[in-house]
Design goal:
GO terms for molecular function: iron-sulfur cluster binding; metal ion binding; oxidoreductase activity. InterPro entries: CPE0013-like_sf, DUF1667, Mopterin_OxRdtase_4Fe-4S_dom. The strands form three sheets. The chain has a five-stranded mixed β-sheet. The chain has a three-stranded antiparallel β-sheet with strand order 1-2-3, covered by helices on one side. Helix content is 17%, strand content 37%. The chain is of the alpha+beta class and 121 residues long. It has two domains: 45 residues; 62 residues, CPE0013-like fold, CATH 3.10.530. Strand 5 and strand 6 form a beta hairpin.
Amino acid sequence: MEKRELTCIGCPLGCQITVTMENGEVTDVQGNTCPRGDKYAREEVTNPTRVVTSIVKVEGGNLAAVSVKTKDVIPKGKIFDILDEIKPVVVKAPVKIGDVIVPNVAGTGVDVIATKNIQAV
């Protein structure tokens, strides 16, 4: 039997959660005060995922960079591959919120999208 201690990020409470596992399967979750905590804990110990945020350089815009994020969660183990793929990207203004900046980033099937409007100058 294995126990893992987590701080939940499912809501602002930040509950201290204890997950009990046996043979790689979750057998018990304790310490959460809402259903999101149970879901977060189970996913975090079996298949951790994250939304990745970063910035991309912009040419010809009113700002030099645009904030971006993955449109959906990606496997936690792919974070650095995604950042390596985003780093050299340069886009031309204008950029609109939701524009796909990097499609299928790092082979995840998830797009990187703009989260800010950038006007052309």
